[in-house]
């Protein structure tokens, strides 16, 4: 059993681990090797085997490939046939050097002066992300979030059909949600095995998440998307991605606070008032705007 993958260092540090921290799954993490992320294995167009190339792509780059795919698909829908790396990097919000590096993991498909063929690049990214096959999804915990996920029509078209729903509430078991009857928690291993579920989504309260996770793993599920604010223990062959909206909001809060600080300092500097940037010289300013005594 190991600590959940995809966490940044520090979180849950008190938890027992049976092996060193796994790679970081943070989408915005850089490519630089860190304690949580293996060094990038040099791959070029000369690497013959696409599978070997795919295995060497850092997780942060994988997350960006998914963003490029979304952007490219929108461009294709609008009739674009080629795209320059500058256009694509701007649309994806990534600098062009990083974009070229990311695409180099797929092999060299750009043409100097022309750019990339949109359809070709879409195909390469889809193959690399394993999107050319279907991944059956099960959702456990059919409350607010589970209902929304079960009713969301966007997953099947992207290769993620929702094929099983689970809950413990007797009022929900047997009731169809999004056209699929809810099964009981105890049926998770059997149903997941029978329906060959490859991705399990956990939308239960945190106290129930680990037992649900164990049942999903017993049913052969190897990838788990966890919405519950808890760190899951899983065997090494199981991949867990955690969606923590509170953490995302806290990160945004940090940026809002910093911008407010910057605006306040700029306004004070213009007005030359006491408490201005000058007066604050030598004092640190906390993220919440409080001045930290030096
Ligand atoms: N709703 C949100 O916007 C939101 C956002 C971020 C994170 N989350 C997290 O997602 C999870 C679900 O949130 P929610 O608002 O949908 O909660 P909810 O209370 O509406 O639904 C939880 C569901 O899980 C079921 N459940 C409880 N124990 C279970 C078990 N052992 N096996 C299977 N099902 C079980 C309950 O019967 C209920 O239907 C929580 O952990 C929450 O912290 C929710």
**Helix content class:** 25-40%
Strand content: 5-15%
CATH architecture of the largest domain: Orthogonal Bundle
Radius of gyration computed on alpha carbons: 23 Å
> What would you give as the CATH superfamily of the largest domain?
Winged helix-like DNA-binding domain superfamily/Winged helix DNA-binding domain
CATH topology of the largest domain: Arc Repressor Mutant, subunit A
| Small molecules held by this entry | nicotinamide-adenine-dinucleotide
Number of domains: 3
Family: Belongs to the transcriptional regulatory Rex family.
Organism: Prauserella marina
Binding site for NAD(+): 141-146
Keywords: Cytoplasm, DNA-binding, NAD, Repressor, Transcription, Transcription regulation
Structure description:
The chain has 294 residues and is of the alpha/beta class. The chain has three domains: 111 residues, Winged helix-like DNA-binding domain superfamily/Winged helix DNA-binding domain (Arc Repressor Mutant, subunit A, Orthogonal Bundle), CATH 1.10.10; 107 residues, 3-Layer(aba) Sandwich (Rossmann fold); 46 residues, no CATH class. Helix content is 38%, strand content 13%. It is built from ten helices and eleven strands. A seven-stranded mixed beta sheet has the order 5-6-4-3-7-8-9. The chain has a two-stranded antiparallel sheet with strand order 1-2. A hairpin with a 2-residue loop joins strand 5 and strand 6. Helix 3 packs across helix 4. The longest helix has 27 residues. The radius of gyration is 23 Å and the shape is globular. Nicotinamide-adenine-dinucleotide (NAD) binds next to helix 6, strand 4 and helix 9.
């Amino acid at each position: 059993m190991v600590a959940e993958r995809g966490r940044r260092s520090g979180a849950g540090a008190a938890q027992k681990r049976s092996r060193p921290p796994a790679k970081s799954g943070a989408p915005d993490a850089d490519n630089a090797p860190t304690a949580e992320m293996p060094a990038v294995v040099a791959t070029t167009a000369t690497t013959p085997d696409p599978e070997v190339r795919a295995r060497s792509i850092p997780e942060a780059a994988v997350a960006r490939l998914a963003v490029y795919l979304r952007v490219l698909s929108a461009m294709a829908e609008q009739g674009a046939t080629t795209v320059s790396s500058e256009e694509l990097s701007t649309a994806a919000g990534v600098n062009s050097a990083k974009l070229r590096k990311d695409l180099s993991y797929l092999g060299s498909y750009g043409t100097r002066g022309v750019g990339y063929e949109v359809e070709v690049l879409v195909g390469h990214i889809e193959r690399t992300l394993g999107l050319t096959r279907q991944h059956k999804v099960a959702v456990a915990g059919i409350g607010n979030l589970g209902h929304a996920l079960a009713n969301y029509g966007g997953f099947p078209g992207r290769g993620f059909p929702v094929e099983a729903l689970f809950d413990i509430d007797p009022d929900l078991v047997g009731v169809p949600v999004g056209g699929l009857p809810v099964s009981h928690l105890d049926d998770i291993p059997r149903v997941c095995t029978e329906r060959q579920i490859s991705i399990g989504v956990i939308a239960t309260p945190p106290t129930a998440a680990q037992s649900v996770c164990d049942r999903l793993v017993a049913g052969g599920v190897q990838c788990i998307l966890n919405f519950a604010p808890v760190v899951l223990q899983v065997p090494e062959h199981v991949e867990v991605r955690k969606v923590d909206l509170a953490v995302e909001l806290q990160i945004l809060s940090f940026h809002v606070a910093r911008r407010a600080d910057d605006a306040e300092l700029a306004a004070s500097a213009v007005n030359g008032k006491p408490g201005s940037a000058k007066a604050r010289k030598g004092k640190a300013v906390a993220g919440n705007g409080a001045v930290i005594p030096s």
